[in-house]
Amino acid sequence: MSETAASETELSFEAGAPTELFDVIVIGAGSGNSIPSPELAGLKIAIVDDGRWFGGTCLNAGCIPTKMFIHPARLVSHLRDAAHLGVTGTASADWAAVRARVFGRIDSISQAGEQYRASGEPNVSLVRERVRFVDESTLVTASGRRLRGRALVIGAGSRPRELRVLPFGPRVISSDDALRLETLPERITIIGGGVVASEFASLYHGFGAKVTQLVRSTVLSSLDADIRATFVAQAGAQWDIREHHDVVDATIPDDATSPIRLVCNTGDVLETDLVLVASGRVPNSDRLGTEVAGFDQELNGRLVVDAHQRVLRAGQALPNVFAMGDIANPHQLKHVANHEARVVAENLRRTLVATSDNEELVSNTLSPVPLAVFSTPEIASFGATLTEARDAGIDAVEVRQDYGGTAWGWALEDQHHFAKLVVDRVQGQILGAHIIGPDAAILLQPLVQAAAFNMPVQGLARGQYWPHPAATEIIENLLLNAKEECNA
Amino acid sequence: MSETAASETELSFEAGAPTELFDVIVIGAGSGNSIPSPELAGLKIAIVDDGRWFGGTCLNAGCIPTKMFIHPARLVSHLRDAAHLGVTGTASADWAAVRARVFGRIDSISQAGEQYRASGEPNVSLVRERVRFVDESTLVTASGRRLRGRALVIGAGSRPRELRVLPFGPRVISSDDALRLETLPERITIIGGGVVASEFASLYHGFGAKVTQLVRSTVLSSLDADIRATFVAQAGAQWDIREHHDVVDATIPDDATSPIRLVCNTGDVLETDLVLVASGRVPNSDRLGTEVAGFDQELNGRLVVDAHQRVLRAGQALPNVFAMGDIANPHQLKHVANHEARVVAENLRRTLVATSDNEELVSNTLSPVPLAVFSTPEIASFGATLTEARDAGIDAVEVRQDYGGTAWGWALEDQHHFAKLVVDRVQGQILGAHIIGPDAAILLQPLVQAAAFNMPVQGLARGQYWPHPAATEIIENLLLNAKEECNA
Fold this sequence. Notes:
Chains A, B: Residues 369-477 form the Pyridine nucleotide-disulphide oxidoreductase dimerisation domain. 2 copies of one chain form a homodimer. By secondary structure, chain A is of the alpha/beta class. Helices cover 28% and strands 27% of the residues of chain A. In chain A, strands 1, 2, 3, 5, 6, 7, 8, 19 and 20 form a 9-stranded mixed beta sheet that branches. A 5-stranded parallel beta sheet of chain A has the order 10-17-11-12-13. Strand 4 of chain A pairs antiparallel with strand 4 of chain B, so a sheet runs across the interface.
C-alpha cells in the first residue's frame, strides 16, 4: 500500500485555487497532535486547528487544569469535614493565585507545543485556521487555502452544548471559560448533571462559592444507582443539588451587579451571579461540514468509524479517512482519544509507509474503558452495572465492599463509601466495577488490569499480597466477596 | 492422617499436674486468632495469649491505630505545605480527641474479640496466660496448667527491642505505648530508622511535636538508595533527622518536668521530654522458652520453618508444629502473617481433619511481598533494587518516572517524588518496584499484581486503560519506560 510521499513542491490547481498536498492532514491538535510519530517522519503532515488554545480541550480547559484546581479545593474541603477526626482549623484556596499558577504552566505548555508544531519538525506544518470539507480528501480553510491529504485524520473533538434558553455570554459560560474567571463568583449555578458539571460543582464549592446544580434528569445518570444515590447524598450535603430541574426562563442583566434570575419547570426561581452550562458536549463534525463528504454520522453528529478507526460512508469504510476522539466515540475521555490516536498512527504507517502489502490494519479492541469523576466524593467506574449485565442475559452477580469495613476505612472514619463489582457467576470474569470514595480513581486500576487481561476473580485476591492496612484492602475484600459468589 | 478429635473430658496426669489435651494449641492471638476456621470446627482448639491487649500488635498498637492517627496528622501536614498551591490556613489535630476516638473503637474490638474467643465457639477456649514450652507438644502456663496439643501453632509475634542504655520506663517508651500517651510531649526523640520509627516521627510531627530522629546507621536502610535519599531530604525538612547517631549515655530524671538528656557517639547532646525507642523488634521465642523444645532458630531468635510453615528441629520439619508471623519470618508485616495463618490453617486441616491421606501440605509460595511506610512522604516497595538484582546475576535494568512528569503531578506541583521499576531486561519480568510520594501504597498494587501473576512489562501499559489524569499514570509511564528498556 506504500506510495511515494508527496513532495514539498507538489501542488495542483483546482478551480483557480492552488491545492496544497499532504500525505496526512490531521484535524484537531488534541490527541491528534500525537499522530506525527517517528515512524511517520517521512510523511508530509499538516496539523489543522483553529482552537482558542493549541493542544485541545484536555490540556487547556478540561482534564488537566480542572485537576490542578481540584487538588487545592480538596485540601480546603477535607479540612471543613475533619472535626469528627479530631482536626480543627480553617483554610481557603485563593482563586486568583491558583488560576495564575495553573495557566502560567498550562499556557506555556500550549504555546511551546504550538511553536514546535509550527516549526519544530521539517515534515510537519501547522494550519491555524478553521477548515471545512470540500470532499473526502480536501479541505478549504477560512482564508481560502485548499488542502488535500492522501489520508485524513479527523480528531476535531467536541464543544460545550449551548442551551437555547441560556445562550453563552459574559454571564453564561461554558467549561471553556470556567477556570479562567478573573474572580470567583459568590453564587454560581451549574446546569447539568454529568461528569463535567459535577466536577465543577465540587471544584467551585471547594473554593468557597455557593453552588447550585440544576439537573434536568438525574445526576450521573449513566452510573450505578447506588453510586448515584451516595453521590447525591454526599455532594448534596455540600452544595445544593436539584434533580429534575430544567431552566425554562432566564433573565440575564448585562450589569454584573444585578443578579441573574432563573425560572425552573418546577416553579423554583433562583438568583445567581454566574451560570455555567455543562449540559453535554457536541461533536464538532458540523463545524467541519463533514456532511459534504458524506460521512456516516450518528444523530448527534458523531462520526461512525470501524474497528480500525476508519470513517464509514454509506456503511463502507473509507480507506484513508480516520477519525478519533470525541468526534468519533461516545466516551469523551482523553485516555480513549489517546489510544485511538495510537491506533490511527499505526494504521497510517501500515497504509502509507509500510513496504509490505501484507500488514493488516490494527483494530481497536482495548477494553474496559474506565472513567473517573474527580469530585468529592470521587467516583471511578468501568463496565456494566448489575442491571445492564442481567439485561444482556448474563448470569451476573454483584458484590459490595464498604470502605468502613477495612482498616483504612476506620482511619477515615468512613461511613458512606464503597466499591461494587459485577462478575459473571460462572466464569468469574469481571464485568464492571463501580467505586465511590477517596482515591477511587486509583483504587480501580487493579480491577481494570484484571478485566483487561481476562483474569477471573477466583485466585485474584489471594494470588497477591495487599499491603496492610492500605486502602487497596477495599479491593482485596471486594474480590474475596466476589469469589464467594462464583461457582467453582 | 485424620484422627479422632480430643474430647473435652480427655485429661491425662503427668508429674502430678493434669495435662489438658487439645487438637490444636495456637500461641498468639494476632493473626493466629484466625486459625479456628469453619473447616476446623471439629477440633478442640486453645488460643493462648498473655498480651496486654487481645488481638496482637497490629490491631492494638501497630498498623491499624497508627494509620488512624496518621490520617488526621496528614490533614494538618498537608495544609502546612500548601501555600505554593494557593491554599492558606491553619489546622491542628487534637491528640487527646484522636486518642479517645481511636482507642474507643480499637479497645472495643479487642474486648469483643477476646469475649468471643473465651465463649463464642464451643470448640475453642482461651488461655489468657503466659506459657512456656515443656516439650515440642506441651506447654506449662504461669499458673501451672499443662496444655498438650496434637498440633501447635506458634504465632507469638515480636516485641520492641530494649536498648541497654535506654531501658523502657515512664519516659522511655516503646511503640506499644506511643499512641496511648495522655498528652503529646512538646519534644520527642525517636531512636531508630526503620519503618516503625519513621512512621511515628511523621505522626508526632503532624500532631505538632518537635521530633528528633536518631538513627544509628541510615534511615530505612534496606530500601532503594534514591528512595532513602528523597525520604531523608523530604522528612528532614519537617523534623530533625540525624543519621549515624547512636545514644551512648542517657540521663532520665524521674521528674517529668526535668528534661531527659541524651549523649550521642557524635558528641551531640540533646534535651528532650520523651524517648520512643523503635530500634527493631525481637521475636518472642525466648519468652516461650522454645529452646527447651529444641526448635531451630536464627541468631535473633526467629524460628526456622519450611515452605509448609512447619518448624524445623535439627533441620527436619516437625509434622505437627507450625509457626507463623513475626516469630517465623523476617518481614514483620501483618499481610504476611495473615497469609501464613491461612497456610497453617489449611495444613492443619490436611493434617488433622482430611479423610484422605493423599492431601499434600500446601506451600507458602506467595510473592512478592510489598511493604508500605505511611509516613509523609509515603513509601511503598517490593522486591529487588537494581543493585540487588545485578548482584544476583540478573541482566536487570531500572527505570524511573517522576510524579512531576504526569498531569497528576502537575496538580500536586510535585517536584520530589517518583516511582522506580527494576525489570529483567530479557524477559521483562518485574523484579522490584519502589515508590515514594502521595498514595504510594495504593499505586504499587497494579505492579504487585503484575509481578505476582508473572505478567511481563511488554504490553502491560498498553493492554489496559489508565484513567486520565489519575495518579496511576505514574505507573503507566513507568511501565512504558520499562518496556523501552527491554528486549523483544
